[in-house]
């Protein structure tokens, strides 16, 4: 209509391959999620032409009006790449970012000769130009007491030059020829949780100090940095994990370790997600505060009985973590999801999609207890194939991943700065990106 503004509606469309034509009509009933932008929301059951030339029926999960939502990828570059891959094997994995109050950006990442190599160690990288260029400053500490020990870390800026790192160190001495996960039991290698501190913007670090867990893991996943809650408590989001033999006395849970004395002790924990049967994993969890005062937890949920991922799930707490809603679906099919709260109260998440290739950003909002997706955009790898494993055994799938572990910080001008690891030209690198949100 001339002279008038059309109100666009974003609709989640579930695409099932059995509605396809030709060769695709004989395929399985695998489902995909697409975001459809339209002037009028189609009715449930409408036949729609969607990407990959599939024709599908539309099942509306949530429709909403927000014509201004947008995510823009501004720029990208490299934090670290092995400068001489033809001479030695050094791959980079698992970045963690902190925006410091002196203007620097600090990053830790793991360097090692392979994804689950014994010599994987935490290293420190620094940028003094808002993340455009980076300097490799070396390992975060001299090294473990034995060469058959590996480690990785997540960092948090506390202000006034103080930075804290949570580290998980794996003892591989009795498993010299194994990876980190047991394919037979889904158990994890013996490990310990450590903390390192810096008082000079991450230039020097204390020796690692072993932390006493508030519950019996017996193993714990390192998937999140410490988060300082609005009430001053520290929360470290993690999940319990089987030991190598498959024991897990407290069950598989998403939990948040709680410290009321800035990490000196961990006196209690938030019990966020758990299912009867003890065969559901809650990986790559995060716990953040929303603008409305609620706490939001999310997780990559893997059903070990069905041998399949579920869409990423979330839970909410309105009483500072004392109690939580039952887990609910975000509708996002993916792994390693990392959310950040924006100034306007919406949530920006970056995750490895499993229904489409690549790393994607998603913009959503939480109304009451309802998660509403607004818009999504690819960041990296959307034209690539073979980026995740599908061997039928998740422990083996870990070994063939090609990218993941995104992390996000907000710069003082509102730009979102992120990092992740990915294989490019047969070398795993640490890559950065910047996003703006409308």
Explain how this protein is built.
The chain is mainly β and 438 residues long. It has one helix spanning 394-398; strands at 9-16, 31-38, 47-50, 54-57, 63-65, 71-80, 91-99, 105-112, 121-127, 135-139, 149-159, 162-171, 191-198, 209-210, 219-220, 226-228, 234-241, 253-259, 268-274, 280-289, 295-303, 308-309, 313-317, 328-329, 334-341, 347-353, 359-367, 370-380, 403-410, 416-424, 427-437. The strands form eight sheets. Strands 15, 16, 17, 18 and 19 form a five-stranded antiparallel sheet that branches. The longest helix has 5 residues, at 394-398. The chain is globular and about 50 Å long. The two termini are 25 Å apart.
Labels describing this entry:
mainly beta; five-stranded antiparallel sheet; 1 helix; globular; disordered N terminus
Characterize the largest beta sheet: strand count, sense, and whether it forms a barrel. 5 strands, antiparallel
CA-atom Rg in angstroms: 22 Å
Q: What are the segments in which pLDDT stays under 50 over at least 5 consecutive residues?
A: 1-65, 394-400
Q: What is the terminal separation in angstroms? A: 25 Å
In DSSP terms (H or I, runs of 4 or more residues), the helix count works out at: 1
Percent of residues in helices comes to: under 10%
Tell me how many strands there are: 31
Strand content: over 45%
Sum up the overall morphology in one term. globular
Indicate the mean pLDDT. Answer: 85
Indicate the structural class.
mainly beta
